[in-house]
Write a structure and sequence with these properties.
Number of strands of chain A: 6
Order of helices and strands of chain B: HHEEHHEEE
Structural class of chain B: alpha+beta
Largest interface: A-B, 70 and 57 residues
Number of strands of chain B: 5
Strand content of chain B: 15-25%
Shape of chain A: globular
Strand order of the largest sheet of chain A: 4-3-5-6
Distance between the termini of chain A: 72 Å
Radius of gyration of chain A: 26 Å
Oligomer: heterodimer
Number of helices of chain B: 4
Shape of chain B: elongated
Chain lengths: 452, 173
């Protein structure tokens, strides 16, 4: 009996990497923000007493029992809109990780309230957002990849000169998420078997040619329809394959060439192809993005290591040499900036070097102390050197969280504004407001370095 | 004492997870399934788990494009009454009103069409909500035209000829 309890305990509480859930929180927040922002002009029409469903009409369109919505009580358009803005702000905070716990709870509860107020609008994507939000709200480890964690990272880095290890959490939220996805795919596949159109591929043809769903002109959809039969059968196979996720590892091991890791990765890859294709060719609301966000929660430490290797190989031509970042180790702001950059360095591409340290002589050939003291310098593996805003712009291509920002840094005028901003910040760094700023002691060190 | 509390909390989580997983599994059984076991579950067990799923907003059905996808395509035109006749409301060129609004309006109009008689007051309120932004005065009418075609299962066959749906005419409040 004790062995049974122990194995149950292990099954639900074994520590797993929490970065997957951190990433899921970000992707969920992004999907929520984008899709709810698009509803901005229609919020009062859909959810307030001044719109299509005043409280007096709810009884004919909605279930009359066990339905709770804040907006059954707060029905004024301005109040509803105010809560809508709060939910948008909450989604944004979830995405970037500002108070991730509280923002996830507020956003999820408001999402429930909006959905329960008018479910004539609901579709598959909304249900996915609801269950993902529910799991995120309960899961212990959603603070990975959050701005809130930056401060702890900085303190840890300040003390240990290395970043904190990846956060861990118990496995039960991953189990809930996996079960939910298996049920989604299995029951969807089961329901398709009750019809007739999925067997001969006509379901795919009809779905692609439905005016309300197709994103592309008819001739494009005609072309894709040539693959209707294999796509229909592939969809059914993909949906039923998710049942394999319920098999114990020792059973999966018995299947030739298969392991749990491989199975999960194959299903995730298949899902990215499946939902990515739906997103490209059909307008089904938030469903595709919400599903891809939910997949993030299934990623393990091995997956992150694998993704890191693949991304480095594809994007950075597998260069073993890191990017040298030369910074002022005697300035608190600079150290804090380096700690932040390292937090964003998911691909482990950066090698920070304090230019006051002897290591400078090995990595900063051709750069004088005065040069280095003027601005942050980076040296790429190919030997090119950048400084100031240009250095930051180069780094943005190597730091995944900054990828969305990177193209905007090349807009006309960005270099002028960037340089001006960088100069202002760099000048202020000597003002000793950022912990342990020893710039007053710099002169002897500088002199000694010059003499050396 | 602390160990007992910790252990109780952990086992509560295990029980909650098992209950939640069972509830989700039973509720998502497709409605199209009619075998005796499913009917028994639907009659006897689903009512027990339904309150939990409703209260936590975790109710869900995964009948996406199933058992067969929707073949009826309905296009809508909203018109307002003018001194010379009827004039189209420009922002309601459904189904291509706006890529962001499109899917929401599809779901609403589809739901209103599926239960036309029962949801007529909601349909009226929905159309009245456009009066202000269409600049229609109180007492002046707006009307919703709809016509439907049905896609053929055979890719080589064209859709059916458009069939007009009943026109809804309502006065603006």
């Amino acid at each position: 009996m004790r062995a049974l309890f122990s194995s149950i305990h292990h099954f639900f509480f074994q520590p797993v990497d929490a970065r997957g859930f951190g990433l899921m929180r970000m992707a969920w927040g992004f999907t929520m923000f984008v899709y709810w922002l698009a509803r901005w002009p229609d919020i009062t029409r859909f959810y307030s007493n001044a719109g299509m469903l005043p409280v007096s009409l709810e009884s004919i369109a909605m279930r009359s029992f066990l339905r709770f919505s804040l907006f059954d009580v707060l029905t004024e358009p301005t109040v509803v809109f105010g809560f809508y803005l709060l939910m948008l702000a909450g989604s944004f905070c979830c995405m970037v990780g500002i108070f991730p716990r509280i923002s996830t709870i507020i956003t999820t509860l408001l999402l429930f309230s909006f959905h329960e107020r008018n479910y004539m609008l609901l579709g598959g994507g909304d249900a996915v957002l609801r269950f993902t939000g529910f799991v995120l709200m309960l899961a212990p480890g959603i603070h990975a990849y959050s701005l809130s964690r930056l401060h702890s990272q900085w303190k840890y880095w300040h003390k240990h000169h290395t970043l904190m290890p990846a956060p861990l959490m118990p496995k039960w939220p991953v189990i809930l998420l996996t079960w939910q996805l298996v049920m989604l795919y299995f029951t969807s596949g089961w329901d398709k078997l009750q019809g007739t159109m999925w067997f001969d591929g006509s379901a795919v043809h009809v779905a692609l040619h439905h005016l309300h769903f197709s994103r592309w002109p008819l001739w494009v959809m005609d072309g894709i329809s040539l693959l209707a039969l294999p796509v229909a059968w592939g969809t059914l196979l993909f949906e039923f394959l998710w049942l394999f996720m319920l098999l114990p590892s020792y059973v999966i091991r018995e299947i030739p060439f298969l392991s749990r890791h491989l199975l999960r990765r194959l299903l995730i890859a298949g899902g990215i192809l499946f939902h990515g294709s739906i997103f490209i060719f059909m307008d089904v609301g938030s469903f595709s993005l919400a599903m891809l966000a939910a997949y993030c929660g299934l990623l393990t430490a091995d997956d992150f290591a694998w993704l890191e290797r693949i991304t480095k190989r594809v994007l950075h031509n597998t260069s073993a040499k890191p990017i040298i970042v030369l910074f002022d180790g005697q300035c608190g702001l600079c150290r804090r900036s380096i700690a932040t950059l390292l937090t964003f360095d998911w691909l482990h591409r950066l090698h920070p070097v304090d230019f006051h340290s002897p290591e400078r002589d090995h990595v900063a050939h051709g750069l004088s102390f005065d040069d280095l003291n003027r601005a942050l310098h980076i040296r790429l593996p190919n030997g090119k050197t950048y400084l100031g805003f240009s250095a930051f712009r180069q780094l943005s291509w190597s730091l995944p969280p900054l990828w969305p920002l990177a193209p905007f840094l090349y807009l006309p005028g960005a270099i002028i504004i960037g340089n001006w901003l960088y100069e202002r910040i760099a000048n202020r760094r000597k003002r000793c407001k950022h912990e342990n700023c020893h710039h007053l002691d710099l002169k002897p060190a500088k002199k000694a370095l010059h003499q050396a | 004492m602390q160990a007992i509390l910790k252990s109780t909390a952990k086992w509560s989580i295990v029980v909650f997870c098992l209950f939640h997983m069972t509830a989700v599994a039973l509720y998502t059984i497709p409605e199209t399934t009619k075998d005796p076991l499913t009917l028994f579950v639907r009659t006897n067990i689903t009512p027990v788990i339904r309150p939990y799923l409703f209260l936590t907003s975790q109710w869900q059905r995964w009948n996406l494009f199933s058992p067969d996808p929707l073949r009826r395509i309905t296009t809508y035109t909203l018109e307002k009454e003018t001194a010379t006749g009827w004039e189209s409301v420009p922002n309601f060129g459904y189904p291509r009103m706006s890529p962001f609004k499109h899917i929401d309006y599809f779901k609403i109009l589809n739901a209103l069409d599926n239960d036309r008689e029962k949801l007529m007051p909601v349909r009226t309120a929905f159309l009245q909500s456009f009066c202000k932004e269409a600049g229609v005065m109180q007492g002046v009418h707006v009307r919703l035209h709809a016509s439907s075609v049905v896609l053929s299962k055979n890719p080589k066959e064209p859709p059916t000829e458009p069939v007009p749906d009943p026109v809804t005419v309502i006065p603006c409040p």
